[in-house]
Amino acid sequence: MTSTSDEIRSTRLDNGLTVLFESMPWLESASVSLLIPAGSVTDPTGLEGSASVLYDWTNRGAGGLDNRAFTEKLDALGAWRGGSSDREYSVVSASLLASALPRVLPLLADQVIRPELADAEFDGATELVRQELRSLTDRPSSRLFEALNNAYFESGHGRSSYGTEEGLAALTPSGVRQDFEHRYSPDGAVLAVAGGCDWDELLGLVDASFADWRGNRFQAPEVRLASPHATHVIADTSQQHIGLNFEAAGVDDADWYLQSLAVGVLSGGMGARLFTEVREKRGLAYSVGAAVRAIRGAGFITAYAGTTPERASETLSVLRDEFVRLSEGVREDELERARMGSLSNLVMHSESSSSRSKALAGDQYLRGVPRTVAEIQAAIEAVTLEQVNSWLAQRPLPEPFVVTLGPDTRAGGDAQ
Amino acid sequence: MSQQHTFHQIALDNGLTIVGERNPQARTFAAGYFVRTGSRDETAPVSGVSHFLEHMMFKGSDRRSAEDINREFDELGANYNAFTSEERTVYYGAVLASFQDRLLDLLTDMMRPALRESDFDMEKNVILEEIAMYQDHPQFRVFDLAAPRFFRGHPLGNSVLGSVESIKGLSRDAMMDYFVRRYAADNLTLVVAGNFDWDALVAQVTGLSRSWSSSGAGREHPALEPAGGMEFVTDSKLNRVHLAFHAPGVSAQSELRRAASLLASCLGDASGSRLFWALVDRGIADSASFSLDAGDGSGTFAGYASTEPDRAEQVRDVFLEVVRGIQDELPSAAEWRAAQTKAATGLTLGGETPFGRLISLGSAWSYRREYRTVREEVEAIMNTSLDDAAGFLADRPFDRLFTLQLGPDAGQS
Fold this sequence. Notes:
The complex is a heterodimer. Chain A is an alpha+beta fold.
């Protein structure tokens, strides 16, 4: 028995559903991620928030069971339900003891193929999403990221996954049901399972539960970016929240791994540059960091720091300086630390069924094919210092989008 | 699988205890120092010192600078963290199993920090930023406001972060004094999980901790006489109402802890619980939860809900009605079984990685000097009887539920 799995089994059903499986026979658990490409980016114009409401509504009863009976059945099986509706897709997920998979999988199939979508549950679903949207007002850092994405994308990719007040108010049960028929389709959806179960058994379960799912592929719009600019959102907060977005390589780009390691040098750990310069040397912020983000067809780098308003201007200029300094190259020891961080992180995640099922589904959606742990490891190990530095040297630092949120004293006023 | 797990323990001559669960199949190794100290062990003039000290432990020892520590954690690719609560401070990390000795060297060296004045002064700014950050998190702040009111002078009501004033007034010497008393060898436990070489580990840590000594650090356990009733705090900056609830619970040492925890799960789990159906499912509150915080010698239930100002009264009433209602309408057999099964799944999932396993292993040891495999604990949960919960509820603990409402207006309407 070994504690690593370097093989991913996959198949595509006639209806277009992609099924992925990674065997982790040493685990007692199994995790399921069922990804449906319905998110706020494909919400019908004027009905923003539809995907979120629909996702919540599908949780409220399915396969002939009402809301309570459906939830109680999953609870009785000990399934830990996760899932959410985000910008690009909705995910129905569960972690469970592998022995419960034959009874849980049909229920998850019911949720996405045969949800009740009962009139009586529509108001609860809509109201919950509305409450989540409104709760953003007391979560300033989340609000900042919403504003930053909104400023960055010209296409619907910048929409909040909670929709808008107007969009939510315009939703009707019949309209959202129609949306369900349209967007909850097997063609483009991904079912990923990882854990202590068996591929042949899984195939049998999938065939029994998902083969009769019907629907046509639904296309997401092209990614379009706005022009770089700076915006300040006035909010009565204690801290000034600072966010930057830089255009960057996407997952299809040959330079993806170079970029990941370069950003690792900037913000991979507590010894990385941003933490050292902003927090350790200057004590400007408690929370500071940068990360590469990917959506289908685009990549970007997001940086964040939260600081008291009087120190916001200095914090922003240190952040910007560090991006300039990164484009001047990295040292060997810095690269090795970033590499070790990535590799170690990879191994740690490979120990958990839930991490692996999410990674499989995410890869399939973003890249059209899942990566094994060994494949990612090899790609990270192959990156050389020369490659990273020549890539950084050849690539001019794009102008950032800067959004600040806080009291009405502009951070670095002329951020541009 | 878990049959292959072996348990190890040793008490060193200096008073330090080491416990570990070895899983020869794991690819990683996790280690953590559990310090029996937190805000409940502080006096008012040094409020926040435990948490500030946690930051300072990363600032270097006689052998390492702050930069060295950060750099070494990164070199090891460690997944690591530290946290401070009312009653414990924990430093932990996980690495590939081949880095066992380097992680132990680093963590053990950190336990004897230099506490340099210049680092102390700089880190004070970071602590003040952290306090400011939590000011922007009303879902956190409402508990900071509720605790001293509920605990009424009991040290569990002490703030973990401290106040801007107490942090500004704190001196390096006062911190050192606190450190010497609270970080003595007999107040520390080293907990390890995953794949490791036990004999090598014991030999290494024995060598590294040779100069450590014991202090006989104690802990006050005054009687807990909590407040009931309702209080209101107004903050015009807020847009929503945040509600904190507290009731006396059971301690981590209590035989009733599993029953009380399952009861809390029936009431306030994220899905399928009574509060979920009454508040979240209906969209009246965007979140509602209730759980048991079983601590050292005493425990409390804590609940939270957030909603719009004009629904605050409704949410408050429903919350209280649901929680108190369980005293008259016990969980059904199905509710109880679902709570047990969910807890069992959670424990199994958490136990699958050394990093996840470490905290439950360390908690069981530091609170109860007890070791159980994941399977034994799952069995104990599945065998927990509803009668235990009924016995606990017979005292009607939720009649004394304390409520604090934080929101944009007084809301006493």
